[in-house]
């Protein structure tokens, strides 16, 4: 008999913990700009920001994927004004096109909510093509609010279109063609 109340109490405690750890709040993590068109060799700067978070955010994390044949990730800068406590720029793997486990935390008296900055990503465009940039949740660093509840986060992705840089010979031919047109028009006007 004494075993049944203990099992019932344990079940209620487990249910309470599950409910308290489940997501009650929501928000979106997005990349800005959502689409870019650049030339090979150009720097591509993309900001990561939170939008529409309904609760005060203590911290969180993210990972992302990109096309390593088109882009190379040079740096990740966490916004340390917003996330002053502890943060990590994660692990960049340009060979596989991944950034894993970026995380950030704040313990300010007034925590971020609504819209806020998270990080700035700086890529280099390597070759022509298209690279989707796909955000995802960090396995080890979920978003949480000040009540130690998980926040349900949606992730908005971006893409970068890289065009080829014109060859010097092509540029030279174009300039000589323009010069020929100018000379032809001058001769025509003089005649």
Short summary:
This protein is of the alpha+beta class.
Task: Please give a structural write-up.
By secondary structure, the protein is of the alpha+beta class. It has one domain: Immunoglobulin-like. The chain contains two helices and 13 strands, in the order H-E-E-E-E-E-E-E-E-E-E-E-E-E-H. The longest helix has 23 residues, at 168-190. The model is unreliable at 1-5 and 7-22 (pLDDT under 50). InterPro entries: CBM2/CBM3_carb-bd_dom_sf, Cohesin_dom, Ice-binding_C, VPLPA-CTERM.
Helix fraction, binned, reads: 10-25%
The separation of the N and C termini measures 116 Å
State the shape.
elongated
Tally of extended strands? 13
**Number of domain modules:** 1
pLDDT < 50 stretches: 1-5, 7-22
Order of helical and strand elements: HEEEEEEEEEEEEEH
CATH architecture: Sandwich
Tell me about the largest β-sheet.
8 strands, mixed
Give average pLDDT, whole number.
86
CATH topology: Immunoglobulin-like
Strand percent estimate: over 45%
CATH class: Mainly Beta
SSE-based structural type: alpha+beta
Give the radius of gyration: 26 Å
Number of helices: 2
Domain Cohesin: 31-145
InterPro entries: CBM2/CBM3_carb-bd_dom_sf (IPR008965), Cohesin_dom (IPR002102), Ice-binding_C (IPR013424), VPLPA-CTERM (IPR022472)
Organism: Roseateles paludis
Signal peptide: 1-25
């Amino acid at each position: 008999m004494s075993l049944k109340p203990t099992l019932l109490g344990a079940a209620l405690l487990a249910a309470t913990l599950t409910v308290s750890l489940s997501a009650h709040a929501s928000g979106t993590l997005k990349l800005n700009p959502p689409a870019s068109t650049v030339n090979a060799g150009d720097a591509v700067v993309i900001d990561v920001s939170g939008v529409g978070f309904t609760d005060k955010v203590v911290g969180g994390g993210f990972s992302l994927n990109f096309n390593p044949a088109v882009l190379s990730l040079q740096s990740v800068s966490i916004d340390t004004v917003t996330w002053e406590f502890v943060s990590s720029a994660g692990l960049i793997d340009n060979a596989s096109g991944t950034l894993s486990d970026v995380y950030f935390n704040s313990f300010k008296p007034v925590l971020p909510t609504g819209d806020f900055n998270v990080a700035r990503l700086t890529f280099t465009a390597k070759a022509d093509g298209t690279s989707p940039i796909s955000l995802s949740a960090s396995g080890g660093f979920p978003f949480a609010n000040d009540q130690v509840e998980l926040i349900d986060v949606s992730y908005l992705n971006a893409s970068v279109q890289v065009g080829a840089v014109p060859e010097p010979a092509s540029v030279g031919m174009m300039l000589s063609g323009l010069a020929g047109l100018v000379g032809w028009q001058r001769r025509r006007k003089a005649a």
